[in-house]
Every structure is written in structure tokens, then in C-alpha cells.
Design goal:
alpha+beta, nine-stranded mixed beta sheet, 19 strands, 20% strand, disordered C terminus
Length: 441
């Protein structure tokens, strides 16, 4: 009997140290969370480690700031989201697991203004807040962002770059205190065979590709556009999850190579609700591109050959379309601020370091957390797809996501038929604390 009791105690103690497939550490007051495993395991780890931070961002940014602290407005926006957007099953699973992890961590998810506990759809709606700003009275002024990539003659005199590529990102979202309190570097190490390691500079709960780079060096930075013309009433797909598709998949467009075209294809495949500008880079041999897109006009891709004002080997993305629509005048303040206040410089740590143990160093840079620079060395024109070896991956459970027959609202090319999105509604039996869902045809 004593042996049984002792065994139970050991089991309980062991479970305390194996709650989630993740580990979090602090770098100068900024959170770095590394998660691994399936979508469910990674979502669970995010909820387990980020519950308090997510509640802070949800209450003070998403609800009080973006939705004016108005329960009626929030509920109307959520209804629009549930009826008008489609979400892949993997991301639904990840959001549900995030809620499970938050609850298991001991945090109370009850949100008094809404008189209920937060659920997976609140998490998914957070990842579609940008898109909803083009469909509701959520102000688009709370989003902005800009970026500049430089290479070749523009960086050849830099001792570190020597002509290599650098991209500088200005993350000029709303000056909301909860965002300043909770910057997050999210390192994802998937166990799915068709996915690869990637890093996101984001905020708790936002697990899309806001500012992201994968292990092959493909980067994507999202900026807002200035024309949100829309011809559709539904079937929209969140832009953050679109960009995650292109970054996380080993070879999104299935051409056997990792190139900026993977992100272009991901954007072209999805139905957009809002106008955005996506800055994509890989290396100095694969020229950076800027993807301009909205619902009404479709997708336009530009590169350095389309420059009319910016000189040299530089490509700039602000919040104004230049090829999707005719350019409009602006002061250029943002670009000047980026170029002169934060001139391009390389980071001292390789991207691969994020996939290993927590770093023992502390950055010496005093730059704002809202600005990120990523440097890439010159390389060949095309980069072949590589998969990480087992040694580079933390051990994870053998559990795999269940396969379900999903419906979709927009057809994909037959070669990508297995990437069908599912509406907010799913065929899975709902849990007691989730909304009722039924299959959409």
C-alpha cells in the first residue's frame, strides 16, 4: 500500500514538471516562449505559459481599446467573425488547446464585461482583428507598420553584411500599454512532417505570421494598406494565418524550393477582407518582394525594378499601395525615421539559435522592442528545402491531430486540395464551454 501511495506521489510530482511542451525565459523583460509538438501541444503550451499576459492584452487592447470597451460592439464584431470567416482545423485545434492550457495553469478566464469565460473563438477573433478593422468600426488607425529591405550596393560597405540582405521592421501599432508590457518572441517547432521551425515577433494570443521568419530564412512582415475595397460578404480568411501558412509549411507552393513565391501563393489562395502590404525576403540572391493586396483588386507583387522614388538596392513598404492602386502623396516621415534613427544593422544571433536551448547572453542593443532587424548572408538563387534532423527537435508526444472532413468556401488548385480551410463551424462535437458548431456546405 505504501508503495502504491509513493508511486502516486511520484506521478503527481512528475506531472507538475511536464505540464506543457514549452519553456519560457526572459530577455531584458521581454518574453521568449519556445513550444514544440502538434498544433494541440503547441497551443496548450501557449495557453499554459501566457494566460495572464493574454488576458492583459485581451482586456486592455482588444476589448477596451479596439472595441471601445463596449460589450455590444464586441459581440457584434464576434458575430461577424463567426459568420464571415473560415479557419483551418489546425488553428481551431490550437486555439481550443490554448484555452485548455490557460485553465490548467490555474488562471481564471472569466471576463466580467462579457459575463462569460473567454473561449477559442475569442482567441481566433484576436488573430482576425486586423481583418475586422476593414469590416467594422474597429479603427484601422490602431494598425500601421512599415519596413525596408536593403542589400547589394546599399550594404556592401557594412563590415558585417558585405552586400548581404538586411530588413528593418517598424512595428508601429497602437501605443497601448498592454502591448508594451507583453512583447513576445514565439518560437515554434512543429512535429508535423509538412511544417518547419519558425519564429514570430508578436503578442500573446496572436499566433499568426505578424512578423515571422522560418528556419530557411524566409521572412514575412505585415503592413496595413490604404484601400480596403471589398466585393464579398463572407468566406474571409485572416491575413495573419495566411502568412503563417506560407512561413510554416515546408514548401507551400510545392515547387521543391523555398522562395518568396511561397508567401505570394499563400496570399493569392485566400479570400481577403482588408487591404494589406506584405514585405517578403529570403536572401540577397532572391530579391525581396512586396505583396499588395485587397479583396476588390486582388494581388499585385512589386520588387526593386518597380521603384520610382527610393534609390539603390532598397525596397520599402509603408501603408500606401504603389502598384495595386496609383500612389498617393505622403510625407515620407516614417521612412526617414526608419532610415536615420535605426540604420540597418545585423543581429548577432543566428536564427537557428532560437531552436536550441535558451540563450545565456543578454542583448546589448538599446533599440525599441518595436523595431527588428534580421540579416541574411548572400547565397545561391534558390534555396532547396531542408528538414531539421531529430537532434534539433525537442522530444514531443506521438499524438497527432485528428483528421476530419472539412468544407470550404473557396476552391484551391488540385495540387493543394489537402489544405482546405474550415469555417468557424466544425463537425466536431462541441465541448460544454464552447459554442455550438455545425458543418457548412
Amino acid at each position: 500500500m505504501k508503495r502504491i501511495a509513493f508511486g502516486i506521489i511520484i506521478l503527481c510530482i512528475s506531472s507538475l514538471f511536464a505540464q506543457a511542451n514549452g519553456e519560457m525565459w526572459d530577455v531584458d523583460g521581454k518574453m521568449v516562449l519556445r513550444v514544440w509538438g502538434t498544433h494541440h501541444e503547441r497551443g496548450y503550451a501557449q495557453g499554459y505559459y501566457l494566460a495572464e499576459a493574454f488576458m492583459d492584452v485581451f482586456e486592455n487592447y482588444m476589448f477596451n481599446y479596439a472595441c471601445y470597451g463596449n460589450p455590444t460592439f464586441y459581440n457584434q464584431a464576434r458575430m461577424l467573425f463567426e459568420n464571415g470567416f473560415v479557419i483551418e482545423d489546425d488553428y481551431m485545434t490550437e486555439a481550443e488547446a490554448m484555452i485548455e492550457g490557460a485553465i490548467d495553469s490555474g488562471h481564471d478566464l472569466y471576463f466580467e464585461p462579457l459575463e462569460r469565460e473567454l473561449d477559442a473563438n475569442d482567441v481566433l477573433m484576436a488573430n482576425a482583428l486586423i481583418d475586422l478593422s476593414g469590416l467594422t468600426r474597429i479603427s484601422e488607425d490602431i494598425f500601421a507598420c512599415s519596413s525596408i529591405s536593403s542589400w547589394g550596393t546599399s550594404t556592401e560597405n557594412d563590415e558585417t553584411l558585405q552586400g548581404g540582405l538586411v530588413i528593418t521592421r517598424m512595428m508601429d501599432w497602437a501605443t497601448n500599454a498592454s502591448l508594451f508590457r507583453n512583447p513576445l518572441v514565439l518560437v515554434s517547432i512543429p512535429s508535423e512532417e509538412d511544417e518547419q521551425n519558425w519564429v514570430s515577433i508578436t503578442f500573446p494570443g496572436l499566433f499568426g505570421g505578424l512578423s515571422a521568419i522560418n528556419e530557411n530564412g524566409l521572412t514575412t512582415f505585415l503592413d496595413m494598406g490604404n484601400n480596403h475595397s471589398n466585393n464579398d460578404n463572407g468566406g474571409f480568411y485572416p491575413i495573419l494565418l495566411t502568412l503563417r501558412n506560407g512561413i510554416e509549411k515546408v514548401d507551400y507552393d510545392e515547387d521543391g524550393e523555398q522562395t518568396p513565391q511561397d508567401i505570394v501563393q499563400a496570399v493569392e489562395d485566400r479570400n481577403r477582407a482588408i487591404g494589406t502590404i506584405v514585405h517578403v525576403t529570403l536572401d540577397s540572391e532572391n530579391l525581396p518582394v512586396v505583396i499588395e493586396n485587397n479583396n476588390a483588386a486582388g494581388v499585385s507583387v512589386r520588387d526593386v525594378d518597380d521603384n520610382t522614388v527610393v534609390q539603390g538596392d532598397n525596397l520599402v513598404a509603408t501603408n500606401h499601395f504603389r502598384t495595386l492602386y496609383s500612389p498617393v502623396s505622403c510625407s515620407g516621415t516614417t521612412i526617414s525615421w526608419i532610415r536615420w534613427k535605426y540604420p540597418p544593422r545585423s543581429t548577432t544571433t543566428a536564427v537557428g539559435t532560437c531552436f536550441q536551448a535558451p540563450p545565456a547572453y543578454r542583448p546589448t542593443s538599446t533599440r525599441s522592442a518595436s523595431t527588428a532587424s534580421i540579416a541574411r548572408s548572400p547565397s545561391r538563387r534558390h534555396r532547396r528545402i531542408t528538414r531539421p534532423t531529430a537532434k534539433t527537435r525537442p522530444s514531443s508526444s506521438s499524438t497527432t491531430s485528428s483528421t476530419r472532413t472539412l468544407s470550404m468556401t473557396r476552391p484551391f488548385p488540385s495540387s493543394r486540395a489537402n489544405r482546405k480551410p474550415t469555417p468557424i463551424h466544425s463537425t466536431r462535437e462541441p465541448k460544454s464551454d464552447s459554442i455550438s458548431r455545425s458543418s457548412r456546405t
